Amino acid sequence: MQKTGRLLCLILLLSVLIACEKEVHINLTSKDKLVVIEGTIESNQQPYVYLTNSIGFFDKIDLNSVGYIKNAIITVEDLNTHTTVQLKEYSVDTIIGSKTFSFTIYAPDVNDPVAFNFKGQVDHSYKLTVVSGGKTYESVTRIPTGNGLDSLWIEKVPNRDTFRTLHAIYVDPDTFGNSVRVQTLVNQVYKSGEPEIYQTAFSSVYNDDIVNGVKLPITIDIGYDKTKEYSQAEFQTLGFMKKGDTVTVKWSAIDKKVFKFWETMTYSQGSIGNPFASPTKIQSNIPGALGVWAGYNARFYTIVDTLQ
Prior knowledge:
The protein is mainly beta.
């Protein structure tokens, strides 16, 4: 009788817990379009901006589904010198395989010497203003000073004669708040047919929250194509460089808000398809829009694998 009473209590308790569950309804069919802004200004480079509409949750994702926004008014102001440049809209056709795709980019007018010579400078802040569809979007980014790499070298991967790991020494400044973004470009000695462009590994940004002012040995993972499906054997070698390859590391100092954008973007991509992962809100630094306006103090380091 005592066991039966306990069982009844347990059933009642479970009934109460189930009754207290809150149903969450998420509208995945919303047709509201948000503006997506991807703007960049690098040290010694002109600014450029891509402007698109977001796509629906169930929309087909391919290059044809990208809705580029035209006829926007976009300006970039150097807040240190108070000089301003208005970006010009360019439409460019590109051929991928047997198909032709068009995309739109905003950049300085190549026929205007003043605009074309507007380039990012280290320790300057830049204000982006986008006027489109009756709305105005503004954001400020800075090109930080930061530190570059102290040294770079290659080591063999144990029991994998055709693969290498890339290592470096980084000396962090003695002030808090330093962040970097890392990309790599691989010039393959044995061509695979894949485009040789700057790619990121799974995680591309790092900060000095726990390593401030430290001389730090690091391993730099080689970037890879996130849109490609990999076999189990290929997946196990992601991050390695191959024997004989030439690798260029693009090491870019970034400000805190740009770091948070790329960090939350990485977490969001990593949670896709994982039913146990918490949803991650991507932290844009452009109020009212998605995306990022990013300043980069980019340094480049090239190394050739000559190990036998």
